[in-house]
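Hey, I was hoping to borrow your eyes for a little while. For a while now I've been wondering how a particular protein folds. The fold is given in discrete form, as structure tokens running alongside the sequence. Could you read through the record and tell me how the tokens relate to the sequence? Take your time with it, there's no hurry, and the full record follows here:
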Amino acid sequence: MNVESYFPQYPGKREISINDKDFLKQKLLKLQPQISEYTFTNLWIWRQHRPVFLSQLEDAMLIFRKNLNGQIYLLPLVEEEKSLHVFEKMRHEGIEDLDGLYGFSKEEATKFNEKGLAVIGDRNNWDYVYSVKELISLEGTKYRKKRQNIHQCLSDHECVYKPITSQIVKECLELQNDWCNLRSCVSDPGLMSEDWAIKEILTNFDKLSVFGGAIYVDGRIEAFTIAERLNGNTAVIHFEKANHNIRGLYQLINQWFCKHSLQDYEYVNREQDLGIQGLRRAKQEYYPHHMVEKYTIKIS
């Protein structure tokens, strides 16, 4: 099915649907994306709090996302090099409801800057990308504390890794409920948004192109992680949750998931830090192989 028969003509738009999965997956994999946002799963599971709208102009698929502040941004085109041309066409049609463009590479953003548009380096949303082999081996003095925490976890508890299947999704949901209750998610809009997205991905696990792993600690699921193929050599981690009271469990789920479920990938994208200093520190302590830079283009 081609774009012209699938999406309304710009400036018309429609909301994303679960029925778009196969079509969008095919189109996004053609892009071989680097940014973590560009899987169907990411676009769909956050739709309640970050709505996604689809449109088309000429033969280009347009994906718009509304952020938590209500601003609407255009995401990169499947053929990113056509972005400036398509944007000029959009301006001709009228873009009153568009606040900017998000997630563009530095190279593409520069083209917009040369046309007089403001380009902003969005450091808080740069993705951290790691070597899978390095996350498995954890070699060297820089990972000594990680290895010690894992050893402590395995010494104190009986830990068993299992791939997530529909048979254990209910137990993962129970862990997510416990995690949220401990952190009072109901009083934090960001955590409530995440909780909704996690429950969407778990309850639709068999419908989405995702895979995951869980760790049973003393007979009960106390950690899980969920990922998806991002491009030919990279997986992207959508979520990772563990019982904070079990020392070393976060380090263990990180290592074991790479070891048991990411053998076919060279890299794993663990998404952004959102400018949260504790999260930034934790991501930096795993020494990313590289960062995926993202740039926002303002049009007003």
Summary: The chain has two domains: 3-125, 127-271.
